[in-house]
Design a protein that fits this description.
about 210 residues, mainly alpha, disordered C terminus, transport, membrane, protein transport, Endoplasmic reticulum transmembrane protein, endoplasmic reticulum
Length: about 210
């Protein structure tokens, strides 16, 4: 394997390890710190920029590998059509098979490297959006609970005020009732006094006439 395909294989292995790390179940606090560092670090941004350039070269290798695979496949089909009865046909067939195998291997290697890079990028941003959504949900939940508590406090204070008003009204009615009782008692006593005087006066007048 040539040096650039060896580097491509190393890049593919690094992508597989990174993908396993991204999908590994981590606590929310740890995941938030890790992805916050990856999205805000300038060093990580420079590494990502270098990887983008390397993926451009991998794409060129992929195009070359696909071209070689089609060419070797066409040569193999042409050799089969011409027959293998002539001298050295076995060696030629083995050579074509080896070239076909290497071209297919290089195609799959570069193709999976490019495909996994797209998957990693999309997975990273999806997890980042999920973290932001969870934070917004937590904030919304706290604000909702706080507003419900304040609303409950306002309702309880309103109920207390209404109860105080009812108690004051009942106390006022009680005082009015006591005042009416006193007035009625005074009026009854005055009526008894006047009735006694009237009876005394009437009795006195009757005795004088006799």
């Amino acid at each position: 394997m040539t040096i650039y395909y060896s580097l491509t294989f190393m890049l593919l292995a690094a992508e597989m390890v990174t993908f396993c790390f991204l999908v590994f179940p981590l606590p929310h606090s740890v995941r938030k710190k890790v992805f916050g560092f990856l999205s805000e670090s300038t060093v990580v941004a420079k590494i990502a920029y270098a990887l983008k350039i390397s993926f451009i070269f991998v794409a060129i290798l992929f195009a070359d590998a696909v071209q070689r695979m089609f060419r070797v496949t066409a040569e193999s089909e042409l050799a089969k059509q011409n027959g293998t009865a002539h001298t050295g046909s076995a060696q030629l067939e083995n050579s074509l098979a080896a070239r076909k195998f290497y071209s297919q291997r290089n195609t799959y290697l570069t193709g999976f490297t490019l495909f996994l890079s797209l998957v990693l990028t999309r997975t990273f941003y999806l997890i980042l959006d999920l973290i932001h959504t969870q934070e917004e949900y937590a904030k919304l939940k706290e604000s909702t609970s706080g507003s419900s508590k304040s609303t409950g406090g306002a309702e309880s204070s309103t109920e207390v005020a209404e109860l105080k008003a009812k108690v004051a009204e009942l106390s006022k009615k009680d005082r009015d009732f006591e005042t009416l009782k006193k007035q009625a008692a005074q009026q009854a006593a005055e009526f008894d006094r006047l009735a006694t005087k009237y009876n005394e006066a009437t009795g006195a007048n009757v005795s004088k006439r006799d």
